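Page 42, continued from yesterday. The earlier attempt failed because a stray header line got pasted into the input along with the sequence. Redoing it now with the clean sequence only.
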Amino acid sequence: MCDHSKTPILFLHHYVGSIATWERVLTRFEADDTCVYAVDQRGHGLSSIPDSSDTARFAFERFAEDAIAFLDAMEIEAAVFAGNSMSGLISQIAALTYPERVSGLVLIGTGKNGAFTNLLGFNDLIQAQEPIDHTFAALLLPTSSSPDADVPQEFIEENIDRAAAVPADIWKEVFQEIINVGDLEPQLPNITVPTVIVWGQDDGVWDVQEQLAMNTHIAGSTLLIRDRVGHFVQWDDPAFLTRVVQELVADIDAARAPGCEFTYLAADQVGQQGASVTVTGFTASQTSESRPGQGQRISIFNSNNQLLARTNGAGDNGTLYGLAVVDGVPYAIGTRFRTGAVTLFTPDDRPGGIKDMGLRQYQEICGEPVPDLHAAVGVDGIITQMDLHQRSHACFLPTVVR
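This time it went through. Structure tokens are written below.
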């Protein structure tokens, strides 16, 4: 079973391809618990052929719609789209049209311009070709693999057989739709998801200028160029491509994880009037309570020095030990004046109001057990003295920022 908490991957095949093109990659995910999917797209492989009366049956917007419909059917909120060749264009269109459904892109042996010069030449060849049969497929497909790559012949033959099974009219219609996509460059700045562009130096379809253009116009994208690899990177260097996809998914999942940052006061500052600590724009301060018989107060401020919360009753007054920020929400760690128990104070819905965060709630947010405070901060001598009754109630956030 795969881990549904991880970002899933949807592999989309090349022109006249099928899920078989991904075989050398998919087998490398067998020891990985990421949810991985590959589909035969409309008119390809085992998928149905739309009725010929639909003149837009192979428009690339339809391919993108199909991918989203697949996510819906599988109850997947969003996925990384890994598209080779024509499906690199489909993946870009999906990211532009359904940005909330695309977690990231791996653009493999593709470009941003369906009307690229090389493709116009291929289109002329395919539109004039009669017949389009096994012999033609056997001539065309192997040219997408680098002559220096070690690709098993039986694997190549399987993919040739599947391409040859695609009806001739689909060969022609789909390639014409590649041309009809035109140049996506003006829209590429609207792609904001993490993107990796993978290109082999022996690619005879899209050239390096197309890769550089995508890399320039998709903000934050990464361009990886591979020696002795052709148009079908998944054939020629499946181990490399698998690592690229896995690393992108890991980065996306790490960015989705709750951000838990924490820092402690220095030991000689604990309990001191005016002592303060700042984490990612928030500040917690120790101030004295002006009313007779009351203790010290803990206050939380934002980066504009606006008061967000303050302990204001005897039961909530206490000593400040540090500050945490969890997913953009500040939590001051301190002791209650009367009980001495350590808790996490955070702003509530009232202006200046404050509430405390329980250990169970903390664990749900950060996904980490709550260790003993003294054991945690005893390292480096930041805070070394805590009463036993305080330590038994202690909680802290796991990422300690020095």
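Notes: The first helix runs from residue 23 to 26.
Reminder to self: strip header lines before submitting.
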